[in-house]
Specification:
The complex is a heterotrimer. By secondary structure, chain A is mostly helical. Chain A is about 70% helix and about 0% strand. The longest helix of chain A is centred in the middle third of the chain and has 53 residues. Chain A is globular. The chains are: A mainly alpha, B alpha/beta, C mainly alpha.
Amino acid sequence: MKNKSSYWAKTLQNGLIGGGISLLLSVVGLVLAFGKTYIISGVLTMAQVFVLAPFLFEATQSIRQLPSKEPIKTLLVGGLTGLLGGAVLALFILINNFINIRSVLINVSPDLVNLLTFHLPLVAGLLALLGISLVVGLVAAGVFMLPDRIRGALSQAVMVVVLVGLFRDLIVTVILHWGWVQYAFLWIFAQSGLTIISALLLFALVGGLGYWSAGRNRKAIAANRTPRQQKVVRWGTLGVLGLIALLLPAILGSYFSEILDNVGIYILMGLGLNIVVGFAGLLDLGYVAFYAIGAYTLGMLTTSEAVGLLHLSFWVALPVALVVAVAAGVILGLPILRLRGDYLAIVTLGFGEIIRIVVLSDWLKPLLGGSEGIQRIGKPAIGGLVLANQQQLYYLILVCILIAGFIAIRLKDSHLGRSWMALREDEDVAEAMGINKVTTKLLAFAMGALFSGLGGVLFATKVGSIYPQSFSFIVSINILSLIIVGGMGSIPGVFVGGLALVGLPLLLSQFADFRYLIYGAVLVIMMLRKPEGLAPEARRRLELHEDDAGPGLQEELQTVTKNPGR
Amino acid sequence: MYKRLLIVISAVAILSMLLSACGTKASTYTCTDSIGCVKIGPTDPIHIAYMLVVAGPNAALGTDSRNGVEIAIDDAGGKILNHDIKFDGEDSACSADGGQAAATKLAADPTIIAVIGTSCSSEARAGEPLLSAAGFVTISPSNTAPDLTDPSSPNHYAGYFRTAHNDKIQGKAAAEFAYNFLHLTKAATIHDGSLYASSLVQVFADNFKQLGGTITLQTSVTIGQTDMSSVLADLASGSPELIYFPIFMPEGAFLIDQARTTPGLENTKLMVADGLYSPDVMNAAGASVEGVYVSSPVVQGAAYDTFVAKYTAKFGTAPINIFHAHAYDGFNIVKAAIEKVAVVETDGTIYIPRQALRDAMAATANFQGLTGVLTCNVSGDCANPIIGVYEYHTGAYPPILIWPTEYVK
Amino acid sequence: MLRTWRQRITITDIFIWLIGLAIAALVIWGTIATLQQGKYPGSVWLDLTIKGLALGGVYALIAMGYTMVYGILKMINFAHSEVFMSGPFTAVFVAIGLSKSGFLNKQPVISLALILLVSAGVSTLIAILLERICYRPLRNAPRLVPLITAIGASFFLQYVFRGFYGSGTYGYPDIKALDHSWTVGGIQIYATQVVVIIGAIVMMLILFGIVQWTKIGKAMRAVSEDKEASELMGINVDRIIVFTFGLGGASAGAAGILYTLLYPVVTFYMGFFPGIKAFTAAVLGGIGNVPGAFLGSLILGLLESVGPNLFLTGLGIPSPSQLKDAIAFIVLVLILIFRPTGILGERISKDKA
């Protein structure tokens, strides 16, 4: 009896949450802003997805918690959840009819109401809204009654169609880059979103593939390979990945190269911060300082403007910039050797801010350009070839990442790496074991500063001009987020985190005003789903059995990263 | 299974290629433009993009400009030459790297004809090379840095225009107003570390000194600063007669508010620029706003009142600053230029020659806009050279035009 | 004692102290040079001090939220700046409404209470939701993970509120009743400054009182010491944590209203800078310690308003106030060099570390 009432209560709660999410998306303006952006041309708009997807999601949540999947009960629970969600929206519209909500919430415009009521008169529109919400809930229930294999394929197909439609503009810019081949693909897309036919084709294709691959047991196939075959597969995959990495700029065109360049620069810095925070456990919130120092040193040395010092070439200035960054790392490292945990965090944060403020100041304007910034920063040249645009710089960044990644991997298992981890686990014990706290900590800072300085150098030469505004606290936060999202201390995690955290906002750029809203939500959801990170340390995973990697891994990681400052 | 799929896919691909080849009818128009033409099919929209700062701490600046363009599109009935207008764009973050990223993305889309942007001059410096190389026309509602339209500067690119005032015009006008009209000889300036403000105060200071005045102090505040007491005390020690601080909200309002409570500055005249021509200043600075001067284009008139009414109805808030008017005019100049150069085929297909469009933009003359009568020059400055100076009065918006005297009704 | 000291002093320590002494010497030198210049009369310094204290009062109120959550969960609630923004950004509509109807100036006390209530209410709600959605599921996760959800939530909240009310700024109406000023010792003291400083002190006393002398405060301290043990003692840890977040949220909402008395502009981005400052102040005072946060905030406020002119004018640096945050952070480093756990922070004993 108790169980029964609890799932009805849960259904009620889910319905209200679904309605609440839809309402929130409507009220912040997201729905209206994409009211005319189609996912499937003439059929489905992005706005409709934003409004109805929460209902669909909450309805599945409701159904999932049902103890048994009787058809009628499933339909009832699903439908009810959807209906409740619609009711929340309908109630809001109704209230808005009597009170002018717009005097406070500026996006509750007549246009929004029209959109939510399908341009019908109020009562008819509300009924239509309720009806559609109900249908969405019932559809969710209906899907649940299908066999698992079909359901999986179906949801995969829907997801892919929605995503392809959503990122239509991005995909088209890539396709347009393909010369005559573009005509083989352009027909897929309408002016806005997919065409109906291509949506259906895509749906059938992905659904079919999904259904087919669900029937295959990948593990069994992999296990059946001989060691020799396994080796071939492994090297083959690596080779293909390497080839793809080399060809990416050519395949994807300039905008994706821009994204990859940014991701690459952040990965580079992430590798460095991973040493400071992940290996040595020193929480650094001012990592941007060395990024700025690297960028400004390069800028000052290579710019062709009057503010420049020596007008050196990129390759001459690069080592100087790195040396300056490392020196700064050591100099910052010294006074804060004795600080721990959050006190260390705040001082490093302060250091980052000090650098930005000083660079912006009128005081050093004759030297550093102040708010005018430094322009016309030198580009690297190899022989006669100047690496001027993002596609060409990609290769330079790739080389830097490979070197940095190699250094990071080698360091991790070196004597120094072990010392860092010992310090992270327990400073006093590590000291007692004969680890020199001073040099070990300073080396961590120096390595971090080196990678960050290199990131700054690449950034400066890529953009060609630098302004103090580019070196704000947010950069430090982004890099820190990147390594935590990837999995603290994990080197593959840095790559995954970089793609997720730097690539994502750029991919979301079509959402303009709303991209940080979506980004913030994704960040929260990502961490709630995978608190240990997207690609946690591989070594640690190997230590545990594959089967119980879930909770055990988490526990293991907790003990490791619980108090990085200590 | 894979094989069959592959066959199907390639069959579809080949078929569609054949279809698209058959679909292209022999056109009567051959493009002779030096940087190419944009072909717009009978049902295709005309694509105009924005590249403005619509997120982050400076979001208000670009959002307001974009709102201005949206009103302009509504006024055009959503159509140019009977084609729908597709208006989308990128956040350019008011930074060089943001500008580069946004410009790279826009430049990859060959359907774009014109870009409304950028918001900040640093974005333009990093992004304009890419936009210009892509053949676009760019028109900025709020870039003011002189180098962007200085033909001798490497930051000047073909196809770049702006309806915002060059700092050289606005800074000079402010100096002339202070020296010639108010007869003040001692002034001080404050900037906020933005390119816009630091460049504008420099032009003001140079001109003010040239006219014979003295600058007691050139100082600055920082973005996000709330307590202005230290900078105001510093200013008060030089006892200037006028403080010129062409910055933005909310720091501008804090300065206005706190200047009145700083010993020694109670009677000092305060002057701000178009970044603070906004009802927000009135609301935020309260009674202290009385007598503050603000320079801005001469926008008052029935047309502007109608515009504000439309704006408020569409966006649910009062306009945020004055750059919406520049953006509105910018879009309309682009629209007029497109209508002038577009080649319309009988089936509704349009060809827009890109260089001809740039030339048509540069040839814009006596264009009646919200910000006055606009005439573009070859280097890209389109703004009406007349800068008005207004005076704020408590509880009354908009402020009252007091200079140049011949425009005061 | 002597021997342990000698053992502990190393070359690095001496080096660190030398850096500290160099900074201190620079500060003192700048101060003396400035005072010798005589650019500013004494009344200016007094005026700057009052304004700095008022600014510090605002920081103190925000810092309470950081420090209390830290005390309980040992976690930096990075989204607290958005909790601080949400209250006054919402209450501005109440204030404008009251002002338009004339009620604000007829009944300033009731109006102000109403505005305060709305602001504190919204901030409390946001803080509790934040705890429920972003932090509670991660209570046993690695320590830095909630930091990331906090940052995500912070972005999300900023843009949600921007979506609600727009990207423009709103001004708080003037309250006639607070339009007073008194001339004391040649300088003007404004009613708003007095209200803010007194408000901050009262608020600090209330929070300190709750933590020290109430039953729930005792429970809070217990949870802060040892979560597991207090659970075994019958304390509902979840409830205590929610209460702490709520209290922090309410104080942030109240802080927001006091903030708008001094700086009457609200935007969706208003939380960011005061948030960082308040966090800094909380660390300066010794994080987790309510009086420490108060003290740290006042010091930070003073440094920002008095510091630039006092330290830098004598050194001949232009636009000194542009460097005010740099000064604040340098002094912070200086203080932490000599007191590594903040001014009133507990000393981390060897065995605890």
